[in-house]
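Our preliminary data section would be incomplete without showing what the modeling component actually yields. Below, a chain of 372 amino acids is followed by its predicted structure, encoded as tokens that our downstream tools consume directly.
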Amino acid sequence: MGERSSETEYQYWLGLHHTPGIGAVTFRRLLETFRTPADVFRAGRVTLEQFGLDRRSIDFICAPDWHQIDQDIAWLSEPGHHLITLDDPEYPALLKEIPDVPLVLYACGHTEILNSIQFAVVGSRNPSVTGRRLAQEFSSQLAESGLTITSGLALGIDYYSHIGALDVNGGTVAVLGNGLDKIYPACHKELAQRITVSGLIISEYPVGTKPLPGNFPRRNRIISGMSVGVLVVEAALQSGSLITARQALEQGREVFAIPGSIHNPLARGCHALIRQGAKLVENVHDILEELTPLVQAANVLTCNGKSNGINQSGLDADYQLLLDNMGYEPVTVDILVNRTGLTADVVSSMLLILELKGIIDSRPGGIYMRIK
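Predicted structure:
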């Protein structure tokens, strides 16, 4: 469990989480009035009635089912298991911005990755060979650029998105629609184990919650809510990925889609998103170019004295060569091409990634300056 709260404090957080009829809005009102979850349980029936809670909620608070909560506490006692509460510094900053914010997150793995810069990659559960390849390639390249790849551990595109990040030792977060005492689908147990070694698996659902169909649309709002943008790779018109995309738009996130053949039914969902204003994507450069200002804004939100997940050290030789030849004076792409011997396309792509990392800044007129 986390270091900030005692087991007793966690019990009260979990108690409110299990209380029927209490969602994000009511929970925040309760904390404004009572200060802590423990104070809510000490308030008494009359005070809770005056506050305006319904009878079902009051009955539970006055006589909590601690057996359910004990199951959660037992799971949290195991190594690598965590509870991230809404007031925890490790709670994802971007996720706090959504209207229906989860009160707690159950987590397995490395919680510090939650405040890295996340980017969601989602799509069909039955993708084509091309779709699988694109999901893996895009995720690898985005992870190499310093982004954490977030998806849902589902069959198909989700699977290849996580694999793409892991293949390049990048960060990845999997969001489940069931309790973390079970991995769903079961065939992804090995993948889940790989993710927990360097990344994180999370869920808002208590221990013992089964993967019911209604859980997944709610799960999707967390995937998009933690991310600066969402890429959809192959999706039919009725795909759950379109729910994620719609939620991303409602949350003010950028949506990207890869087009496909007009004869491919798995491309129709992506084409529909593009007609609705999603950014058409042909390569990773298209995403990084659009993301740079979004990542800079997210960096402000996630700046809490911890690493924001963007690695500014350990650059490979070509990047170091480029930076050495930039100095700290304004330069153009042409100047850097002449100084380094790299091609213009390579230099332009590297500059975008360095800007995304916050190491350089772009100015009007195609001018670049090193700032770190």
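The longest helix spans residues 284-302. The domain at 111-293 is CATH 3.40.50.450 (Rossmann fold). Preliminary results of this kind motivate Aim 1 of the renewal.
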